[in-house]
Write a structure and sequence with these properties.
The complex is a heterodimer of chains A (115) and B (112). With 115 residues, chain A is mostly beta strands. Chain A has no helices and eleven strands. The model of chain B has no long low-confidence stretch (mean pLDDT 90). The chains are: A mainly beta (115), B mainly beta (112).
């Protein structure tokens, strides 16, 4: 059973460029969330996708956008990259059940460096 | 912004000793999860404890939750070199909710 997979693992972009990161959730999971983790910090919630719609959003500008596909995989897009966008981007997946609390699984992340 | 704080920020112990990390949070929660992160890697889920639970065990891990004090602790017994990592607590607020709010992490170093 494959866990959460993310691509690419590392990438370097120039300021002002755009980047797309990809995530495939764990088998059986239907909800994907994205987090940004700056060096030395805890992860910060960007947004969450369920049923191909953005359901929750953290305190991130509109330059950050996403998409979820019918097979539950997801993309994170960041436009007009800034140096401060350099971080580890983590994808998390879970099953949107009604009962209290779900284990949330994370991928290995995509390291983005903006120069 | 971060929901809470882990304490201590860094901890170094000898292999075989027990390691205790604490987490405090600010708002009412539905559940609290602990994760491990090896340097530059993804987060590995360790244990989930719900707000109506006070203690949970998983192998060498013991987690406690005190909702009246808004705090949790993670105990790792008989530490091993492979336990060297950063440990984060993360809180979830709602039923079926998948948004987690993370603390700042504790950097644990096990000295062989």
């Amino acid at each position: 059973d494959a866990g959460v997979t993310q691509s690419p693992t590392h990438l370097i972009k120039t300021r002002g460029q755009q980047v797309t990161l990809r995530c495939s959730p764990k088998s059986g999971h239907d909800t994907v969330s994205w987090y940004q983790q700056a060096l030395g910090q805890g992860p910060q919630f960007i947004f969450q996708y369920y049923e191909e719609e953005e359901r929750q959003r953290g305190n991130f500008p509109d330059r950050f956008s996403g998409h979820q596909f019918p097979n539950y995989s997801s993309e994170l897009n960041v436009n007009a990259l800034l140096l401060g966008d350099s971080a580890l981007y983590l994808c998390a997946s879970s099953w949107r059940a009604k009962e209290a609390g779900n284990t949330i699984y994370f991928g290995e992340g995509s390291w983005l460096t903006v120069v | 912004s971060q929901q809470g704080e882990e304490d201590p920020q860094a901890l170094s112990i000898q292999e075989g000793e027990n390691a205790t990390m604490n987490c405090s949070y600010k708002t009412s929660i539905n559940n609290l999860q602990w994760y491990r992160q090896n340097s530059g890697r993804g987060l590995v889920h360790l244990i989930l404890i719900r707000s109506n639970e006070r203690e949970k065990h998983s192998g060498r891990l013991r987690v406690t939750l005190d909702t009246s004090k808004k705090s949790s602790s993670l105990l790792i017994t008989a530490s091993r070199a492979a336990d060297t990592a950063s440990y984060f607590c993360a809180t979830g607020l709602n039923f079926g909710n998948e948004k987690l709010t993370f603390g700042t992490g504790t950097r644990l170093t096990i000295i062989p």
